[in-house]
Design goal:
It contains four helices and six strands. The protein is of the alpha+beta class and 134 residues long.
């Protein structure tokens, strides 16, 4: 998947999730997806190549970086808790969907229970999001 398609696909995936909003707090060159005011995905081309940055568990981030050459420590973010993804051959739509969903659930899990739009523990079943659009 090339970088431009990866970015658009990641944003489309993220915008499907409950209580997600697209914002531009860092200017028009940064698309930022938030759930209940908290960032779970950033998309930009400021480096000259379209990229997506998402939150990860530290060990998951290490594993993703080892498996996928297009995944690197998060651009302008905490390198332990965020990864950036550019286009390449090893991250397909299914993997991207899982990565974006994991980022969303990590952020939701940190919200006060009364503010959570979903239960991050059970949202992992996510049948409606695992279906490939026709």
């Amino acid at each position: 998947m090339d970088s431009a398609v990866l970015v658009e696909t990641a944003k489309e995936i993220g915008l499907q999730f409950p209580a997600t909003e697209l914002t531009h707090p860092f200017g028009p060159e940064w698309d930022v997806l938030k759930v209940k005011g908290r960032v779970f995905l950033l998309a930009t081309e400021v480096t000259g190549e379209p990229m997506v940055t998402v939150k990860v568990e530290p060990l998951d981030g290490e594993g993703l970086r080892m498996l996928h050459p297009e995944i690197s420590p998060g651009y302008h973010m905490n390198k332990k808790h965020w990864v950036s993804i550019v286009g390449g051959d090893t991250v397909d739509e299914s993997a991207l969907r899982e990565i974006v969903l994991d980022s969303y659930c990590l952020v939701v899990a940190k919200l006060p229970k009364k503010d959570r739009p979903v239960d991050p523990a059970t949202f992992g079943g996510r049948e409606e999001f695992e279906k490939v659009p026709e």
